[in-house]
Amino acid sequence: MELTMTDLTPDDPALATDVGPLIRTLRPGLDAAGFLEFAAVAHLQGLVFTAAYDPAGRCLGVAAHRVLATSRGRLLFVDDLVTAPSARSAGVGARLFDELRQRALRAGCLRIELDTGTANLGAQRFYHARRMNIVALHFALDVRRTCD
Q1: What are the residues whose beta carbons fall under 8 Å from the beta carbon of 22, sequence distance 6 or more?
Q2: Would you say 98 and 106 are in contact if contact means Cβ atoms under 8 Å apart?
Q3: Tens of pLDDT, residues 1-34
Q4: What pairing do the DSSP bridges indicate for beta strands 111-114 and 59-70?
Q5: Which H or E run contains 48?
Q6: Does this model's pTM top 0.90?
Q7: What tens digit of pLDDT does each residue of 59-91 get?
Q8: 78 in Cβ contact with 63 (< 8 Å)
Q9: Is 108 helix (H, G, I), strand (E, B) or coil?
Q10: How far apart are CA 133 and CA 128, in angstroms?
Q11: Which of 65, 56, 51 has its CA nearest to residue 103?
Q12: What whole-number distance in Å separates Cα of residue 27 and Cα of residue 61?
Protein backbone atom coordinates (compact mmCIF):
# COMPACT_ATOMS: atom_id res chain seq x y z
CA MET A 1 0.00 0.00 0.00
CA GLU A 2 1.38 3.39 -1.00
CA LEU A 3 1.51 5.78 1.97
CA THR A 4 2.92 9.24 2.55
CA MET A 5 4.26 10.02 6.02
CA THR A 6 3.59 13.59 7.15
CA ASP A 7 4.55 15.27 10.42
CA LEU A 8 1.78 17.53 11.72
CA THR A 9 2.19 20.38 14.19
CA PRO A 10 -0.47 21.89 16.49
CA ASP A 11 -1.09 24.77 14.06
CA ASP A 12 -1.98 22.38 11.22
CA PRO A 13 -5.78 21.93 10.88
CA ALA A 14 -5.21 18.28 9.90
CA LEU A 15 -4.10 17.59 13.47
CA ALA A 16 -7.71 18.17 14.58
CA THR A 17 -9.45 16.62 11.58
CA ASP A 18 -7.20 13.64 10.82
CA VAL A 19 -5.01 12.81 13.81
CA GLY A 20 -7.30 13.69 16.72
CA PRO A 21 -10.07 11.24 15.82
CA LEU A 22 -7.56 8.38 15.46
CA ILE A 23 -5.78 9.13 18.74
CA ARG A 24 -9.16 9.35 20.46
CA THR A 25 -9.97 5.77 19.40
CA LEU A 26 -7.16 4.81 21.82
CA ARG A 27 -8.02 7.50 24.37
CA PRO A 28 -11.85 7.66 24.48
CA GLY A 29 -11.80 9.90 27.57
CA LEU A 30 -10.11 12.62 25.54
CA ASP A 31 -12.53 14.93 23.72
CA ALA A 32 -11.61 17.02 20.66
CA ALA A 33 -10.70 20.14 22.66
CA GLY A 34 -8.75 18.08 25.18
CA PHE A 35 -6.78 16.45 22.38
CA LEU A 36 -5.78 19.82 20.91
CA GLU A 37 -4.74 21.10 24.33
CA PHE A 38 -2.71 17.95 24.94
CA ALA A 39 -1.14 18.16 21.46
CA ALA A 40 0.00 21.76 21.97
CA VAL A 41 1.62 21.05 25.34
CA ALA A 42 3.14 17.72 24.26
CA HIS A 43 4.53 19.27 21.07
CA LEU A 44 6.49 21.70 23.26
CA GLN A 45 7.89 18.62 25.05
CA GLY A 46 9.09 17.16 21.74
CA LEU A 47 6.11 15.02 20.72
CA VAL A 48 5.83 14.52 16.96
CA PHE A 49 2.64 13.35 15.24
CA THR A 50 3.45 11.38 12.09
CA ALA A 51 0.36 10.66 9.99
CA ALA A 52 0.18 8.03 7.24
CA TYR A 53 -1.89 9.19 4.24
CA ASP A 54 -3.05 7.08 1.32
CA PRO A 55 -3.02 8.47 -2.27
CA ALA A 56 -6.64 9.65 -1.83
CA GLY A 57 -5.56 11.85 1.09
CA ARG A 58 -7.14 9.74 3.82
CA CYS A 59 -5.28 9.51 7.12
CA LEU A 60 -5.04 5.78 7.80
CA GLY A 61 -2.74 5.81 10.80
CA VAL A 62 -0.72 7.94 13.16
CA ALA A 63 2.27 7.56 15.44
CA ALA A 64 2.94 10.01 18.27
CA HIS A 65 6.60 9.79 19.26
CA ARG A 66 9.55 11.64 20.75
CA VAL A 67 13.27 11.21 21.22
CA LEU A 68 14.31 10.99 24.87
CA ALA A 69 17.68 11.07 26.59
CA THR A 70 17.47 8.60 29.47
CA SER A 71 19.89 6.93 31.86
CA ARG A 72 19.39 3.83 29.68
CA GLY A 73 20.53 5.75 26.58
CA ARG A 74 18.88 7.73 23.81
CA LEU A 75 15.60 6.23 22.69
CA LEU A 76 12.59 6.90 20.53
CA PHE A 77 9.53 6.60 22.74
CA VAL A 78 6.20 5.90 21.04
CA ASP A 79 3.32 7.43 22.99
CA ASP A 80 0.66 6.14 20.59
CA LEU A 81 0.52 4.16 17.37
CA VAL A 82 -2.92 3.63 15.89
CA THR A 83 -4.41 2.55 12.58
CA ALA A 84 -7.87 3.53 11.40
CA PRO A 85 -10.26 0.63 12.11
CA SER A 86 -11.12 0.41 8.39
CA ALA A 87 -7.42 -0.01 7.49
CA ARG A 88 -6.30 -2.54 10.11
CA SER A 89 -4.30 -5.55 8.91
CA ALA A 90 -3.46 -3.75 5.66
CA GLY A 91 0.15 -2.88 6.52
CA VAL A 92 -0.39 0.69 7.74
CA GLY A 93 0.89 0.01 11.25
CA ALA A 94 3.87 -1.89 9.87
CA ARG A 95 4.76 1.03 7.58
CA LEU A 96 4.47 3.48 10.48
CA PHE A 97 6.66 1.27 12.63
CA ASP A 98 9.26 1.02 9.86
CA GLU A 99 9.23 4.82 9.61
CA LEU A 100 9.79 5.07 13.36
CA ARG A 101 12.69 2.61 13.15
CA GLN A 102 14.37 4.71 10.45
CA ARG A 103 13.85 7.90 12.46
CA ALA A 104 15.29 6.23 15.55
CA LEU A 105 18.41 5.23 13.62
CA ARG A 106 18.82 8.74 12.15
CA ALA A 107 18.43 10.27 15.62
CA GLY A 108 21.12 8.04 17.10
CA CYS A 109 18.72 6.12 19.31
CA LEU A 110 19.64 2.77 20.83
CA ARG A 111 16.10 1.45 20.73
CA ILE A 112 12.39 2.11 20.38
CA GLU A 113 10.29 1.85 23.52
CA LEU A 114 6.57 2.02 24.15
CA ASP A 115 3.85 0.96 26.55
CA THR A 116 0.75 -1.00 25.67
CA GLY A 117 -2.17 -2.10 27.79
CA THR A 118 -1.98 -5.55 29.33
CA ALA A 119 -5.37 -6.41 27.82
CA ASN A 120 -4.46 -5.17 24.31
CA LEU A 121 -3.46 -8.56 22.90
CA GLY A 122 -3.68 -7.40 19.29
CA ALA A 123 -1.11 -4.67 19.92
CA GLN A 124 1.11 -7.10 21.78
CA ARG A 125 1.05 -9.51 18.82
CA PHE A 126 1.86 -6.61 16.48
CA TYR A 127 4.88 -5.53 18.57
CA HIS A 128 6.14 -9.09 19.04
CA ALA A 129 5.96 -9.53 15.26
CA ARG A 130 8.30 -6.52 15.02
CA ARG A 131 10.78 -8.31 17.30
CA MET A 132 10.06 -6.10 20.31
CA ASN A 133 10.59 -7.65 23.73
CA ILE A 134 8.78 -7.09 26.99
CA VAL A 135 11.59 -5.61 29.09
CA ALA A 136 9.79 -3.88 31.96
CA LEU A 137 6.55 -3.47 33.82
CA HIS A 138 5.04 0.02 33.86
CA PHE A 139 3.56 0.95 37.24
CA ALA A 140 1.12 3.80 37.81
CA LEU A 141 -0.54 5.48 40.77
CA ASP A 142 -3.53 7.77 40.35
CA VAL A 143 -2.57 10.39 42.95
CA ARG A 144 -6.05 11.92 42.91
CA ARG A 145 -7.42 8.71 44.44
CA THR A 146 -4.71 8.05 47.00
CA CYS A 147 -5.87 8.39 50.61
CA ASP A 148 -2.54 8.42 52.42
Answers
A1: 59, 61, 62, 82, 83, 84
A2: no
A3: 799 999 999 999 999 999 999 999 999 999 999 9
A4: unpaired
A5: strand 48-53
A6: yes
A7: 999 999 999 999 999 999 999 999 999 998 899
A8: yes
A9: coil
A10: 7
A11: 65
A12: 15
